Amino acid sequence: MTTQNTLDTSGASAAAARSGASQAIAEQEAIAAAKTDLNNVAVFTKFIKKAEEAAQSAI
Predict the structure, then answer these.
(1) In angstroms, rounded to a whole number, what is the distance separating the alpha carbons of residues 9 and 6?
(2) What does pTM read for this prediction?
(3) Residue 31 has pLDDT above 70, yes or no
(4) Separation in Å, CA 23 to CA 2, 19, 28, 45, 48
(5) Is 54 a residue whose pLDDT tops 90?
């Protein structure tokens, strides 16, 4: 006899929960990587702007 409020740690529901957790972790890692890439682009853009300003002042 089981109660309705117990957590089923076997079978399809547990496998789905583990799969969902793995997918969520992968998505969070992808988001973190994309954020890092975006930050790198922002820094690179600032360097380009500084170089452009230096080139303009040298003219």
Answers:
(1) 9
(2) 0.56
(3) yes
(4) 30, 6, 9, 33, 37
(5) yes
Q: Closest Cα partner for 43 from 33, 54, 32, 35?
A: 35
How far is the C-alpha of 8 from the C-alpha of 20, rounded, in Å? Answer: 16
Cα 53 to chain centroid distance, Å, stands at 34
Token pair, residue 38, equals 């975006």
State the Rg of the chain over Cα.
Answer: 25
Residue 9 burial class via C-beta count within 10 angstroms: exposed 0-12, middle 13-18, buried 19 and up: exposed
- Tokens 């969520």, located at residue: 24
Task: Give the pLDDT of residue 56.
Answer: 93
d(C-alpha 24, C-alpha 22), whole Å: 5
